[in-house]
Amino acid sequence: MTALWGISFDATPISGVVVEFVKTARHFADRGTRVVLDLGYDIKADKDAFFRPYEHESRLLPDWVRLGRIAGIEGIAGYDRQFVADVLREVVGRGEGTHLLPRIDAIAHTLSELIVATWEAHDVAYVLVENGTLPENITYTKALHLAIDKYGARRGLGRYVLWRDHDLMWQSEPSSGKYGEYPYPATPKPPNSPHIHYLALHDQARRRTLEWAPHLRTIDVLPNTFTHRKAIVHSGNADFRREHGIPAGAPLIARCTRIIRQKRIDRDLHLLAGIPEAYLFVAGDTGESPEEYRRLTALAQELGVTDRVVFGGWLAPHEDDIGRSTGCRYSVRDLLAHADLVSFLTSYDYESYGNPVGEAIASGVPYVATRYELYDTVYGSKGFRAPLLTEDIPDPGFVRRVRDLLTDEEKRAAMAEHNFRLGERDFSTARDLLDRLVLTPMDERIRLSVVLPVYNEAANLPAVLDSLYHQRGMDRSTYEVVLVDNNSTDDTVDIAEKFASDHPDLAIHVVPEPEQGVSCARRTGMRFASVRSRGRVNAEERFYLVSADADCRVDQDWLSELFVAMESGKAAIGVCDYYYSAEHFAGRPRLWDAITRTLRCRAVTFALFGGFPDGKGFAVDRDVHDRVGGIEIFYQLQDGRFVNHLSDDWDFGIKVRGSGEDIGYVPRSRVEINPRRVDHAIDEVIAGRAYGSDGIIVMRDIRPESTAVSEDLTEEQAQQAWEYSIKDFTPKNTILPVLLTPSLLDDDAVIEFFTPALAERLGRRIAEIKDEMRMTDFTPIHSYKTPSYRLYFEFADEIFARLRATVGQDIGHPPPLPPCFEDVPPDRFVEFVKYYCEDRESGEAHNYFGNGGVF
Questions:
Q1: Tens digit of pLDDT for each residue in 788-823?
Q2: Sheet strands (E) in 112-251
């Protein structure tokens, strides 16, 4: 049985770092991996545990965690507690101690050999490093870097190491200066190793890490995790208060923490002094810092609160995540079941996450806290509610707010419920991310992930999967399919899983997405693929995320043409060609004419501008996808309910092009559009409502109960369908590209298409409109749509003239203007165009332009 080897630089038997290790390790243990944890006694010099044998520590951990250490480490000449302390003080803190550098390198080399030998003996398949970048022991960190690369190369492993920093130099007592100053020259920067996947606890930590080490390519956010289940009093913990001398009706404040000076438990004692009816329970090891414990007990006596303070010693960590230990009768959850309030009045610059706050939220207990340095990053900015201490010692106003909360049961319940619901939403992604990172590994040969959102596609799915399986020019080891099930109620998932079983040479992953909407499903699939792709050994290669639709069929060369185009060019997105099969519209020449005219226009403008991605088929460079934030979901109100805005693919393309990246057209990569999109929504197509109305862009379910073929359109219907199609097409495909990238108007081919005079006037007008809107429009959906509409009205006659000259005379002239313009004086036309396009409350402009492409 292979093992997960954990290394904690905390050097304590139980801490927030160790608790998070065990929570993460459970994912591996549940899948049959042995878990071994090195507590780091042989790493940190300030915990009075260097080389100390393990004794009772295992009783604080679940029985599936074994304690381990590097065999032979105590025999390394010169490696001892004093050496580690000297290096931290002189080399790291003062930037001196050059005489120690040769010893550091020599010891690191010897130590790395022992680490590799220990991992070999335990058959280690995964390593989880906790806090290894914090320069408490840079010799050990350097040894780890050497051992990771040596062991990974020897065993042919990919990114088998998860390296998670809970604390970093700039967020762990920076005022003390013990780690030096930015850019921390003595701290070993994290190497861009093909075997390490770095994890930050939040976005700010990730951003700061990349500022310090911009060479890193694989660093993701993995927040601390909490099991959301409200703590309750039950038969097993009913005697908790009685056994600790706490009256049944007394308000109880809980403090779960290490008893060290940085945690500022003195503030809790001052708070308690102002609330004479309350009790305080401090759960922590009183022996870790005897001096601090003596100071606190003396302060409690001075404040007259000794009889209302319980230093309860270690409690077993949260039993849902760790398991009740054999050494402790009660767990943290038992304390929270009896507590009325959780306190976290910690130092400003000591905490990076604040696990007790998260535990309180997840257990349904209100909390109070300080606004420590990262509080807003982790909790405050997400909307969690709590009284916050901003003074050094609780002042009368803060004490009064806390006392009011303790005595108002309704207020406590409302605050706890609000925080609990937010926590369920915001802290529920960690397991999913871990599954993507490690537990669903990606073969190093894979270069493309095809993301396929599905919802009740049992009828179409076999043909779609078959077309993806029989791709020419692509070895099946180079691509995979990520099928995202969006709550299907038919046999969709069974069909996918059977296909995967019958075709083991093509990797197919089925991923659930509970939030309804193709946009949400596409986002989830691309994130799943992106994160996992960074675990490959050769993650430096360009990697591509490819979108496909479950009701469309791709040509046999679809993927190979996309891949070749992306590999040979610089474009961040490759856009496919789309077509309808003429046989589906036999006997309907008027409808077919409207469709083909639209496709001919698209071929011209896509060749000029690259077009925009359509969910039916496009590829995007993974690094660009991640840099712009991936697929973003916008919401709109429809009939009193929030619904997904459908054009996530177009919005994504706008973000990519707006970031300065190119979009390329790949005409030989072709996708056949399912004719049902027209056949069974023909009334909406004719009226320009196929994707909604009044500015609400959604797609209704158009799967038919029958397969009857529609009749051809009348001449009037065909004209109306064409007008809605060209009105939708022109703003988006001839105006929006140059609005986003005005430099296109300097391209010779684009100038030839528009003519020099029109190109010059367009460029000038775009600059004017952008300047006009720079402080008045912050809504991403509209910030490009409405100026595109305005430019359409202002330049429609000239643009249509160029389309006729380039595409064909049958393109005709612009459709009639909305009737409201009949009374507008010609000299005020541009002014009223602005009012019309900006009037989002009525949705008239959106209805006029068809609210989405109809063909």
A1: 889 999 999 999 999 999 999 999 999 999 999 998
A2: 124-130, 161-165, 196-200, 219-221
Which architecture, in CATH terms, is 441-551? Alpha-Beta Complex (3.90)
Nearest to 40 by CA among 69, 3, 83, 65: 69
Looking at residue 373, the DSSP 8-state letter turns out to be: T
Q: Residue for token digits 């770092």? A: 17
Task: Judge contact between 8 and 131, C-beta under 8 A.
Answer: yes
Secondary structure of residue 472 in the 3-state scheme? coil
Alpha carbon distances (Å) from 840 to 546, 728, 792, 833: 33, 17, 17, 13
Task: Tell me the two tokens of residue 192.
Answer: 């861009």
**Position with higher pLDDT, 836 vs 537:** 836
476: Cα separation from own chain's centroid: 28
Cα separation, 367 vs 349, in Å, equals: 20
Class of domain 240-426: alpha beta
- The position carrying tokens 């006029």 is 848
What's the rounded Cα separation, in Å, for the pair 197 and 162? 5
CA atoms within 13 A on the CB side of 26: 17
CA angle centred on 215, ends 214 and 220, rounded to 5°: 75
Q: Where are the domains of the chain?
A: 3-221, 240-426, 441-551, 552-848
Contacts 24+ apart (CB under 8 A), 75-83: 76/107, 76/110, 76/111, 76/114, 78/103, 78/106, 78/107, 79/107, 79/110, 79/111, 79/139, 80/50, 80/51, 81/45, 81/50, 81/51, 82/45, 83/107, 83/139
Q: And the tokens for 399? A: 């004490």
Q: Are 246 and 310 in contact (CB under 8 A)?
A: yes
Same fold: 3-221 with 240-426: yes
Which CATH entry fits the domain spanning 3-221: 3.40.50, 1.10.3470, 2.40.30, 1.10.12?
A: 3.40.50
Distances (CA, A) of 334 to 232, 234, 311, 366, 398: 8, 9, 15, 15, 27
Q: Report whether 657 contacts 677 (CB < 8 A).
A: no
Q: Which of 203-212, 270-279, 684-693, 775-784 is least confident? A: 775-784
